[in-house]
Specification:
The chain is of the alpha/beta class and 212 residues long. The chain has 9 helices and 8 strands. The termini are close together. The structure holds BIS(adenosine)-5'-pentaphosphate.
Length: 212
């Protein structure tokens, strides 16, 4: 199965992608995680990406397309879930062409719908485990007692100014992709509000439809 998780910053894409990957045996491919690893390693890609990411801006298409193309060539072109990619119409066109060259079309786009007031609340209280990559929320999905405070990362782009820029970038460059997806791929609209389990159950239900 080849899936894309789509939605605004903080919609729960990373959280649900990890659950989907576990339950369906898929590779979780998050361009945000790949770029953060590049920044940590101070690689040329990381050096180019860092300023954009800290400000909440999108990283240039050619940089992100290259990382995704290399990853797909490495893992093969099946059994993956893309989280945070594509994010512009250029990226989507690049992906569709790369997959069609491999006769490996996307099976579905799962779109998580979450209103903006919830997004700010979710992002400002998010914490990520530096060791395992687990995603927590201090109120809605708190870390277990054995995960110490030092292990919990507050992402630099989860500050109010960067969140504002990320939402602007989303509305200007990513939201228009919905029309592209609807024209080319099976598009599954899922309500992203409710508990983690409720959202997961809705996604599983949507994926049970014919042809998947
Ligand atoms: P990226 O890491 O992809 O960030 P994002 O898309 O902004 O998404 P987030 O990771 O912030 O949120 P999410 O939807 O995964 O939500 P999460 O599950 O964490 O990208 C970061 C940056 O990298 C970009 O700004 C850009 O610079 C660059 N980049 C990445 N990809 C790129 C691309 N393709 N092109 C160009 N640039 C790119 O959940 C959020 C919080 O909510 C957590 O605390 C979680 O515990 C909580 N939560 C989750 N579900 C629920 C629920 N049901 N109820 C209550 N709380 C919940």
């Amino acid at each position: 199965m080849r899936l894309i998780l789509f939605g605004p910053p903080g919609a729960g894409k990373g959280t649900q992608a990890k659950l989907l990957a576990k339950h369906h045996g898929l590779r979780h491919l998050s361009t945000g995680d790949m770029l953060r690893a590049a920044v940590r390693n101070e690689s040329p890609v990381g050096k180019e990406a860092k300023g954009h990411m800290d400000a909440g801006e999108l990283v240039p298409d050619d940089v992100v397309n290259r990382i995704v193309a290399e990853t797909l060539a490495e893992i093969g072109y099946d059994d993956f879930i893309l989280d945070g990619y594509p994010r512009t119409v250029d990226q989507a066109e690049f992906l569709v062409e790369a997959l069609s060259d491999q006769d490996a079309p996307i099976n579905a786009v799962v779109s998580l719908r979450v209103p903006e007031e919830h997004i700010v609340q979710r992002l400002s209280r998010r914490r990520t485990d530096r060791e395992t990559g687990a995603i927590y929320h201090l109120d809605f999905n708190p870390p277990p007692a054995d995960v110490t405070a030092e292990r919990l990362l507050h992402r630099s782009d989860d500050e109010p100014e960067a969140i504002r820029t990320r939402l602007e970038e989303y509305h200007a460059k990513t939201q228009p992709l919905e029309a592209f997806f609807r024209a080319h791929v099976r598009f599954l609209d899922v309500d992203g509000l409710g508990s983690l389990d409720e959202v997961q159950a809705r996604i599983d239900e949507a994926l049970r439809g014919p042809g998947l």
